[in-house]
Amino acid sequence: MLARNLSRTVSRQAVRRLFSSTPNRSSRALVKIVEVGPRDGLQNEKTPLSTELKVELIERLVNVGLMDIEAGSFVSPKWVPQMATTADVMTSPTLARLRERHGDKLSLPCLVPNDRGMHALASLMDKHPSTPPLTNEVALFVAATEGFSRANLNKSVAEALSVQPPIFEAARKRGLKARAYVSVVLGCPFEGYVDPKEAARVAKELLDMGAYEVSLGDTIGVGVPQQWEDLLSECQKLNLPMDKLAAHCHDTYGTAVANVLHCVSLGVPTIDSSVAALGGCPYSPGATGNVSTEDVVYALHESGIPSTFLPTPEPGSLLAWHDRGVDGRQRFEELCDVGEWVSEAIGRTNGSRVGKAVRGRKQREAQKRAKL
């Protein structure tokens, strides 16, 4: 027990030393927010959702200022029926207008879980050539445990890794960036505890294959800040660049925002989130959705941390009704409105604590004005 505690202490010190020279808030790089709602958030919904709804969700998210949005997945409709219309979403006139308007600033990546998915995307891009192209980025995924890999991919972890290089190569030939996910890095519904050494090893293999970034996923939402610190320490031991890692947190046990803030404090530059906390894990009963984009934006902004959504944080301005930070507050409330809209559209309760709080405050303010 003493040896284990000593090892953890050394691990913590190593990570903290690594980031002891992290720039102060005013000079640090923006935390990149990757919106995963239209793909990861919607893929497990039971009620069929129309192409029009998915396209409108993406359009609303772009219009409020999110520029990195997972748009869909080229996966078998037998296993993920909600993603069967991804081709229609990607070729919609609305998304074409958004790409033309924003150019390279807008990224609409698609998940390609295997070579068939990559072939489907490539064929679609050939059939619909455009400038900018339908997408400039693909995403791949592998699990950190054998149990989850077998359930989700019907392959061992080694087998799942072995089929990735041709997908990376196909993406490279088309000029597409490749992002990779590692699922269940902090806990598995089949195996429970996950060795952070193993999760870090899988992440390293994906980076070595050519991923520009690896998103570490707490898929069932059991993680706490110390577990993230232990995992990042193992990544450091394998010389994984911190600027090539992202945190993908779920909020099953209510610790996602704490995890996000701790990961950012340790130098993780990218956070995955989902508007209205859409999402969940079909293999983990009771697992709730991704950390909500509204909650992440609020926590970062009020902590004085700049993000790609609100690059000039002014603590207090998202709650205040005075003039300071009006533009930021308006954009933030418009983001919350998107969460309310999509929750109502798909018939579920808004999973964002911040979104619900903003709605309640606006309702109270409207009632006060009505009484004047």
From TrEMBL:
Its EC number is 4.1.3.4. GO terms for biological process: ketone body biosynthetic process; L-leucine catabolic process. Coiled coil: none annotated. It catalyses: (3S)-3-hydroxy-3-methylglutaryl-CoA = acetoacetate + acetyl-CoA. GO terms for molecular function: hydroxymethylglutaryl-CoA lyase activity; metal ion binding. Residues 31-311 form the Pyruvate carboxyltransferase domain. Residues 363-372 have a biased composition (Basic and acidic residues). Residues 352-372 are annotated as: Disordered. Pathway: Metabolic intermediate metabolism; (S)-3-hydroxy-3-methylglutaryl-CoA degradation; acetoacetate from (S)-3-hydroxy-3-methylglutaryl-CoA: step 1/1. Belongs to the HMG-CoA lyase family. This is hydroxymethylglutaryl-CoA lyase. It comes from Rhodotorula taiwanensis.
